[in-house]
Structure formats: structure tokens, C-alpha cells
């Protein structure tokens, strides 16, 4: 584990300092030759607490946004695979040094495409697939997922030669609860009328949760929260539109929609209902009792994936977030050919309409060919939201 050189010190941009630590930790993962196994995981349902208790180095595999890497991955796929899964395969086939350094990959069966991709990844690195129940409320589903975690524990012990104790798992549950809590608190600063952090900046700092050793990450995020909480917004004049981004995974490196919304059109993304934003930090795990049962139950109780049934659990969870953060509108973005979020579009859009929040559906990929078309649609949506906001403001003043 590398040590940061005075991250967030006096006069230093704390967000830039955190990015420097993330870059160093990635490189340290690649270069490390201390005998510790290096594993990657593809989904939020893979338990970081258990990986950390096993003594392995671990990172989430969620790079994306590069069309050249996608084209490499297309050698192994059909046209109906989303760009994220193609990018994942391209990173393995194209010898990305982070992916090449792995000894093992753990994939959750979050969709059929990921399942198929995990079988192809097995050509490059051994893969273990974690089965994920769809009906998370059933006791039988919880018992099944607990058995999956028992099996995962045995697999990690076999891989590392280390005995994973209940005490080590318990210690890491407490540690990761603290990490999730501070990342949730940082996000809640965006409830302010003029948030001290942009949506793009929040996603960038969230990447550290998946790359930085948790014992190093916790004081960094606590320091970052203190600085942001005390920060006065540089925004003046009329407040920007408050938006939520919902939908499928936003990869590390995929900032195209955020660049349009915040960089080109001046709105502000204040909350996310996708798996690489604030959503993984909304829950805490039980810190007493059987730690492995606390893990399996806790991961099923997190904000639900669109694979889960009923789908209304996911749409209602997104709707509650939108209301909690007082958003003016929702951008529902999903990757083309996304099995879960593409098929579930109607359920989400109907629920957003039901709770009275305007929403725009956007299907996209990592190419720039539709940039103008997407910007035109989003711009028209934002103009409509501004008119709506002005009308509501007038009604408020009149009342």
C-alpha cells in the first residue's frame, strides 16, 4: 500500500489530491510483488469485506468509455452485447496492465450478458461466478445467498492459503460501514441549493472506494468531507437545475453524459440511481451476530439492481432518492442492448411520472456519433424544466 504525500494539504485541491492517490494505488496494484493474490470483481454484489478479510488485493473492474477498447472486445461478442461488457473483454484481450495483473475474477450473475462475458474472461483469468437471487425478500433466497458466501469464503481460503476468521470479517464490516457512511455524507452535501461538488466530481471520488485500500481511504474521505462541508459554493445568481442520473452502470472513464449536462448545459447532477454513484452507500451492514450472514443479508438489502424482482423495488428506490434530493428532473440513461435497464425503462418512466418528476429516457453507447442528437434532446428537456421551474417559482411567490 502506498502512502499519499500530504493529500488535501494546505492550498491543495482535495479532489485533485484524491485522484493522485487513486492513480498511485492503481499502479501499486499492478506493480505489487509481495505474494498477495490480486483479484478483480465486476459487481457491487461481490463482498469487499470478505476480500479484505482474506488478505487479497482487490479492485472493481469497471473501466469503460474507450471505443478502441470496445472494438477489441467485439472480437468475442455479438452485436447485442452492451459497450460496458465489450470494454471489459477488450481490457483483458488488449492487455490492460490492471486486468493483466489479476490472479482471479469474481463475477456476480447480475445479467445474462455478464454471465456470458465471465465465461469468456475465463480464457484469460480464472473466474468464479457468484449466483444472485432475483427474489431477495424470500427467506429461501437469503439462505441461498448465504450459502454462496460460504462457498466464496472457502474459495478465497483455497486461493490464498489463509484462514478467514469471523473476527476479520467483523472488523471489515465495521470498516466498510464507516466508508459507506462518509461517502453518503459527502453526497448529502449536494442537497444544498448550491452544492460544493459536481456530479462528475462525485463519481470521480467514488472510484477511490473501488481502488484504494480502505484503511487509507477512510481518513482521506473524512478529510475531504470536512473541507467540502466548509466550502462556499462558487456559483452565483440563479441556481442551476438539479438533476438525477438513473439507469445502467456509468463506467470509470465514461463521463460523456455528465460532460453534456454539467459542462455544456450548465445543470447540476446532484444524485445518482445507478451502481457507480451514491446508491451503494445508502445501506449499512449489521455489526453483530453471524458476520457471514450479516454480509449476505446486507448485500441483498442494498438499493436493488434492476435484475431483482419486482422491478418496482428499483423504480421506487430511484424515485425516493429523486425526492430526497429535490431534483427538478431525471435523466434515465442506459447503454444500448442493456438487458436489465433497457427492458425496464417503461417501469421506471411510469413511476417517475407517477411521483410528478419529469424524466428523459436516453439510450447511448461509448461512441461520439450521436453526441449532437443527444445534446439536442437533453437541451430541449432542460429548457422545458427551466420553464416549469419558473412557473413554480411564480406560483410560490404569488402564494
Q: What does the secondary structure layout of this molecule look like, with pairings?
A:
Blueprint: H1 14-31, E1 38-41, H2 48-53, E2 57-60, H3 67-73, H4 83-93, H5 97-100, E3 104-108, H6 112-121, E4 127-130, H7 139-160, H8 166-188, H9 199-211, H10 214-229, E5 242-247, H11 256-264, E6 268-273, H12 291-300, H13 312-324, E7 329-335, H14 339-343, H15 345-354, E8 359-364, H16 371-398
Parallel strand pairs: 1-2, 1-3, 3-4, 5-6, 5-7, 7-8
How many runs of DSSP E, i.e. beta strands?
8
Could you please say which CATH topology applies here?
Rossmann fold
Global mean pLDDT: 92
Counting copies of identical and different chains, the oligomeric state is single chain
Main structural class: alpha/beta
**Overall helicity:** 40-55%
> How many strands, what sense, and barrel or not for the largest sheet?
4 strands, parallel
CATH class, anyone? Alpha Beta
Number of domains as seen in the coordinates:
1
Total helical elements: 16
Distance between the termini: 59 Å
Structural shape: globular
Rg for CA atoms: 21 Å
Low-pLDDT regions: 1-9
**What is the topology, as strand order, of the major beta sheet?**
2-1-3-4
Strand percentage lies at: 5-15%
Q: Output the helix-strand order.
A: HEHEHHHEHEHHHHEHEHHEHHEH
